[in-house]
Write a structure and sequence with these properties.
Layout lengths: L1 H48 L3 H27 L4 H7 L1 H20 L2 H7 L7 H25 L9 H20 L13 H12 L9 H4 L2 H16 L1 H12 L5 H11 L4 H27 L10 H16 L20 H15 L2 H8 L1 H9 L7 H25 L9 H15 L14 H13 L12 H15 L5 E3 L2 E3 L1 H28 L5 H12 L14 H16 L1 H8 L19
Antiparallel strand pairs: 1-2
Helix pairs in contact: 1-2, 1-6, 2-4, 6-11, 7-8, 7-10, 7-25, 8-24, 11-13, 12-13, 13-14, 13-15, 13-16, 14-15, 15-19, 16-18, 18-19, 18-20, 20-23, 21-22, 22-23, 22-24, 23-24
Amino acid sequence: MFRRKINEWVEKLNHFLYTSRSRAVTTIRSVYFLSSLGALAILVYIIGFDPDTASLKIGLKGLNIFFTFHILTFLGRWLYSFQRIQFLKQNKFRAVLAFLLLLHVITHSVYSDEWLTRWLSYTPSLGVYEFYQMMLGVYLFFFVAYSFVEVTTGISRIPMQPATIFLLSFLLLISIGTGLLMLPSMTVMEGSMPFLDALFTSTSASCVTGLIVVDTATYFTFKGHVILLLLIQFGGLGIISFASYFTASLTKGIGLKHQSMLQEFLSGEDLYSTIGLLKQIFKLTLFIEGIGAILIFFTWGAVPFTSIWQKIFYSLFHAVSGFCNAGFSLYTNNMYEPLVKESYLLHIVILAIVILGGIGFATIQDVFSPVRMRDRLVHPWKDWQLGTKIAIYMSAGLLVFGALSIFLLEENHTLREMKLGEAVITSFFQSGVARTAGFNTIDIGALRLPSLMILIFLMFIGASSGSVGGGIKTSTFYVILSSVVATLTGRQKIEIGRRFIPNELVFKAMTVFVFAVIFNLLGIFVLTLTEPNIELIKLAFEQVSAFATVGLSTGITANLSETSMAVITLTMFVGRVGTLTVALVLSRRVSATSYRYPKAHLMIG
């Protein structure tokens, strides 16, 4: 009898829900959007403007109201899903967030701040409102991240080329970073960071370059440093990759078009391997950055820190900056800071992290994957992939070439006060980071002209394909060299490692090379017009450093005019997304290419 009554009530409820579902879902979406917007606005105000205690209490009460609506919309979506258990399984992450929000609203409404004050009294330096800001900041990050994941599930339905979506994703990241850096609490100065400075800094961090117009160490607060760290991490891996990874992990998966887009971004071999490669990338990134942070923590040497927490954060920041090849440092003179420049074991660790970030994820997976290592032990005839060989051999060759050149050219100049071992480590360090990351342990502005030209050459080539570094890439340079050798020796085909290189790859390599040369020449030309009082070699160095997303500078960045800053900003963006990507976005595809005109003859050379 009792069970029958319950079944009748459930049937009536389901009938009511079914008949009102269309209007209710629309209302729930509207309330969810408005409550999310309101909560986001209050969170940004609390975190970005450092309100006084009275304003903070009002803000927290308003936040609880929006959080309540947020919880109710989640319950409404659950109620109208009809398959409620399945709904919870598919929305586990959102359910956890809703539960935490509910817990926060109940405890804050019933117990106010008394319980939190009593609990935080056991911590040495964390007050109740500092704790609120920290927790709200964490929630803001996960809320925005998950909301972006939800939007990304429909990315395959966007009628745009993958290159256009990739380009727009970086524009979005740069815009968000610019807005966050302009919040008053991000800098130590009174008021907001100037727009052009914020745009330049956000672009430099998002494009993992490292050029700065303000002193990163002293200009930004801890919150500002955290924002820079997030921009570097998201910019290094790409927010499309981040969103796709969490979409694949937290939802049913991603569509074939979405996978083909990722295949193009990640240079995957096929659709099947793309998601696996994406997951491997995140595992490798977290592992290398984590191990790198630990090693850096123990190799600071005599470098002083105000607390253990500062030392941990500095270690993590430089590990992420190193692996993402950003070159940002929390010291005024980068790694040329007193005591830091003398910690040579630290330099070796950072150089190793930079090299791993610059050789490419596919190369790391091919060389260090336990499965492939065991497979090569069982089957010794199995070798590295062709791309892996090119990445490692070219990186090693350029590293040795650059180190020898710097050592021989600067032995009696910038390296003269160092011992032999110290000079060798410094030469290798500067050669390694010159192709991708803008750390420096010597005064770049004091280098001789030939040394600057060597660094320009290394920066222009850049890192390997499929990595977070910039430049034309080692594979591009290698294919061009092979093409030149084949032409000089009279070969009709380019063969590398018993593999035939199709003409499409040769044309692509030549396109990247020519576009890079033309773009940099145009940039240098404009800079000579806007900065007539600066030497040509310094302007060329700045331009190529920005294009290759390296970040090394002779010290002229902060003194550039607004027009020159705009040129360098554009250069960093184009260098990060790639000249070929920009060309694909701006070009029109040929409708048909199956025809062939009569053979032409031109005089070359």
